[in-house]
Here is the input.
Amino acid sequence: QVQLVESGGGLVQAGGSLRLSCAASGRTFSTYAMAWFRQAPGQEREFVSGINWSGANTIYADSVKGRFTIYRDNAKKTVYLQMGSLKPEDTAVYYCARKVGPYEYDSWGQGTQVTVSS
Here is the structure.
């Protein structure tokens, strides 16, 4: 298993931008697909975006498509989530995770809070 540490969250006004980072430990980072999820208060955790091992393939939830961009730097063992045109409904704790199966993820980080004010 790897350890993941998210950072970059904060308070931002609607329409603003943030970049989240997820730093991984271990030597196998570049062999795994990664993903970002989020969980708002009182709601279930939801998938936000995913990226394959090389960064060539990405996928987004419809709610963030066109506003968020996921990318990775395998040399730095870090995956990023660039968030733009933020909306109050993007407010949540954002988590990164390692994909280990078709719908299976592990090595969840501690999360980083994103709050978007209207």
Observations:
- The chain is about 0% helix and 50% strand.
- The CA atoms of residues 8 and 60 lie 20 Å apart.
- The first strand starts at residue 4 and ends at 7.
